[in-house]
Design brief:
327 residues, binds magnesium ion, binds adenosine-5'-triphosphate, alpha/beta, 10-stranded mixed beta sheet, UDP-N-acetylmuramoyl-L-alanine:D-glutamate ligase, 4-stranded mixed beta sheet, globular, 14 strands
C-alpha cells in the first residue's frame, strides 16, 4: 500500500472563454471542467489507475466539492474534517490557448489540525501496513515550512520498524528544510525537477547547467545522499531524468514525444518509480518506469493520467553514468 498526503489539495477548475481574457469586462465561458488535484492526489490517481493499492490522505469536509469529485472518480481517499472549504485553482483558457491561472492560498491549518492529520497518517500506515508514504506539494497557510522534516522524524520515532519509506516531492522552503536537521528528518527519496535541485544546491549551480549535464545532476544528487537521503530521482523535463542511489547513477531519456501538456508529468514520474520499486525492480528499471510514465503524461492533454496502454517503456534508453563518464 502506498499512502500519499496532500496538505493543500485544490479543485482545479478550467474555464474555456469564448474570447481572449479582457480584464474589467464580463465574459462568457464556453465550457467548464473540474478535477480534484494536488500532487499527492495525482500520484494516488496514477497508482490507482495502474491497479496498485493506494490511499490519498487530505484535509477536507466530506461534503466539500473536491472530496465529492474524488468519490465520483473512485480515487481511494480518507479526509480529516476541517472547519473551512478547500481551495479552487482556476485556469482561464482563451480561444488561442493563452492561459491565465489563479491559485487560491487554501484554508489555514492550525497546530491542532496538523496533530489530528498526523494521527490519521499513523493510523492509516498501521491499518494498511504501508510500504511508502508520499508527502507531496506545497504547504497551506499556517503550516511551518519545516513541517515535512518534522513529520518524517516524528513518524520514524513513533512507528520505528513499521515506518514506511518516505518520499517527498515539494519545492522552496519545505524542500530546503528537509536537509536542515539531522538525517532522521531526511526522506528516503526526493523527486526534484531541475529548478528544485538547483535550489538544493544553493546559488552555485543553475537549472540550465543541470539540464545540460547528467554528470552534474549525479554529483549534486550524490552530495544529497551524503546528507542522508536514500535516493534522488531528478526529473529534467524533455531531457529525461537521472536516478542516484548508493548503488550508482543512471541517466534515462525518452524517444521524442508529441508534447500536449506537462501538467502533472512529475507526479506521474513519481508514480512510475514507486510502481517499479513495489514490483522489486532494479534501480535502472525504476528510472525507466519513471520516465515512461512522465513522458506518457506529457503526451496526453491536460492533467490526464497515463494508463499502461499509454506507456512506451521500450522508448526509454537508460545508461549507467560511469559509462557516460568513460566515453
Ligand atoms: N517536454 C517534455 N518532453 C518529453 N517528456 C517530458 C517533457 N516534460 C516532462 N516530460 C517527462 O516527464 C518527466 C517529469 O517532468 P518534469 O521534470 O517537468 O517534472 P516536474 O517539473 O516535477 O512536473 P510537475 O509539474 O508535475 O511538478 C520528465 O522526466 C520526462 O520523462
Ligand atoms: Mg514537480
Amino acid at each position: 500500500m502506498i499512502i500519499t498526503l496532500t496538505c493543500n489539495p485544490s479543485l482545479d477548475k478550467t474555464i474555456e472563454l469564448d474570447s481572449e481574457l479582457a480584464p474589467g469586462t464580463v465574459q462568457r465561458a464556453r465550457s467548464t471542467h473540474v478535477q480534484a488535484a494536488g500532487k499527492g492526489v495525482n500520484v494516488t490517481r496514477a497508482l490507482h489507475t495502474a491497479q496498485a493499492a493506494t490511499l490519498a490522505l487530505l484535509p477536507g469536509n466530506p461534503n466539500d466539492p473536491l472530496l465529492r469529485e474524488l468519490s465520483t472518480d473512485s480515487v481511494p481517499h480518507r479526509s480529516l474534517p476541517i472547519d473551512a472549504a478547500l481551495r479552487t485553482n482556476i485556469t482561464l483558457v482563451g480561444p488561442h490557448g493563452i492561459t491565465t491561472k489563479i491559485n487560491e492560498p487554501g484554508p489555514v491549518l492550525g497546530a491542532e489540525t496538523l496533530s489530528q492529520l498526523e494521527q490519521l497518517i499513523v493510523s492509516s500506515i498501521l491499518e494498511f501496513n504501508a510500504s511508502w508514504l508520499v508527502l507531496a506539494g506545497s504547504l497551506p497557510p499556517g503550516v511551518p515550512s519545516d513541517y515535512y522534516a518534522q513529520l518524517i522524524a516524528s513518524l520514524r520515532q513513533q512507528l520505528k520498524d513499521r515506518c514506511p519509506k518516505i518520499a517527498v516531492d515539494t519545492s522552496g522552503a519545505p524542500l530546503r528544510a528537509l536537509f536542515a536537521f539531522e538525517p532522521g528528518h531526511v526522506p528516503d527519496l526526493i523527486k526534484p525537477n531541475g529548478h528544485e535541485l538547483a535550489e538544493l544546491a544553493g546559488s552555485r549551480i543553475t537549472e540550465a547547467e543541470l539540464e545540460a549535464s547528467p554528470q552534474l545532476v549525479a554529483a549534486t544528487s550524490g552530495a544529497l545522499l551524503e546528507r542522508g537521503t536514500g535516493a534522488v530521482l531528478a526529473t529534467l523535463g524533455a531531457s529525461g531524468a537521472v536516478l542516484t542511489t548508493a548503488e550508482g547513477s543512471w541517466v534515462g531519456t525518452h524517444a521524442p514525444v508529441n508534447v500536449r501538456s506537462t501538467v502533472g508529468a512529475g507526479d506521474s514520474s513519481l508514480a512510475g518509480y514507486l510502481l517499479a520499486d513495489t514490483a522489486g525492480l532494479e534501480p535502472a528499471q525504476k528510472l525507466r518506469w519513471a520516465i515512461a510514465y512522465g513522458s506518457a503524461a506529457a503526451a496526453l492533454p491536460g492533467s490526464t493520467i497515463p494508463t499502461r496502454d499509454d506507456l512506451r517503456v521500450d522508448a526509454v534508453t537508460v545508461t549507467a553514468l560511469e559509462q557516460l563518464q568513460g566515453s
